[in-house]
Amino acid sequence: MFYTAGWVHVICGCMFCGKTDEMLRLLRRFSIAGRTVVLVKPRLDTRTEDGTVISRSGAHHTAVPVDDSRQIEALVGDADIVAIEEGQFFDERLPEVVGRLADAGKQVLVTGLDQDFRGIPFGPMPRLMALADQVTKLTAICVVCGEPATRTQRLIDGQPAPADSPLIVIGGLGDEKYEARCRLHHEVPAAESGLGAGLAD
Ligand SMILES: [Zn+2]
C-alpha cells in the first residue's frame, strides 16, 4: 500500500503500546520500496542519544532533532516520506505543517501519545488525529490485570501522580515511573494544590 498522493497516518496509543516499533516497521517497508525517508523528533525527547530513535525492541533509525514544527518543512527536501516521532510534544502548529506536507504529495507518519498521564488529549495529537487520513490506535497490556491498556499511569515514588503534577518533566521529579494500565486501573488522584497542570521544566 504505497500511495502516489499525499497521506497522513497517525500511530497513537499509551506508553508501551509499540508505536515506535510500528512506525519503524512501516519505514523499513518504504525503504525496501526505494522511498526516501526523513525522520524528525522534538529536541526535548532526551530518552535517546541525539539523532537516533530507538524502539523498546531495539530497532533504530536516525532522526533529526527539531525545536519547532516550523523547522520540519525545511528539512524534508526531496524525501518521499516524513516521519515524526513524539508528536504530542510538538506545538499546536504541527497539524497545519503535516497537512501542507501531505498536500505537497508527501507520505507523513506521526507517532505520539494520544492522552497524557491524566487521560486528557495530549498537545496537538487530537487535531492531528481528526485531520489524518488514517489513524492506528494501539493498545498495551495493563500491568495490574493483563487486559488491554489504553492509559499511561504515572507513578512518583511508587504512588499515582496527582492531576496537578507537571505534564512534562525534564530531569526527573523524584523517582518517576510509567506503566500501561486499563481504564479500570488507571489512577489520577485529584489535584493537591488547586487547579491546573502546567508545563514545567
Ligand atoms: Zn487493568
Task: Note down, in words, how this protein is organized.
The chain is α/β, with parallel strands linked by helices and 201 residues long. It has two domains: 7-138, 3-Layer(aba) Sandwich (Rossmann fold), CATH 3.40.50.300; 139-201, Wheat Germ Agglutinin (Isolectin 2), domain 1 (2-Layer Sandwich). It contains four helices and 13 strands. Strand 9 (140-141) and strand 10 form a beta hairpin. The chain is globular and about 50 Å long. The termini are far apart. 35% of the residues are buried. The site of zinc ion has 8 residues, from loops.
Question: What is the N-to-C succession of helices and strands?
Answer: EHEEEEHEHEHEEEEEE
What's the CATH C level of the largest domain?
A: Alpha Beta
Q: Describe the biggest sheet?
A: 6 strands, parallel
Structural class, by secondary structure, is: alpha/beta
Q: At the fourth CATH level, what is the homologous superfamily of the largest domain? A: P-loop containing nucleotide triphosphate hydrolases
The ligands bound in this entry are: zinc ion
Strand order of the largest sheet: 5-2-6-7-1-8
Distance between the termini: 41 Å
The backbone outline, from C-alpha atoms, is globular
Q: How many separate domains?
A: 2
Low-confidence stretches are 194-201
**Which percent band covers the strand fraction?**
25-35%
What is the mean predicted local confidence, pLDDT? 88
Helical proportion? 10-25%
Q: Count every beta strand, where a strand is a DSSP E run of 2 or more residues.
A: 13
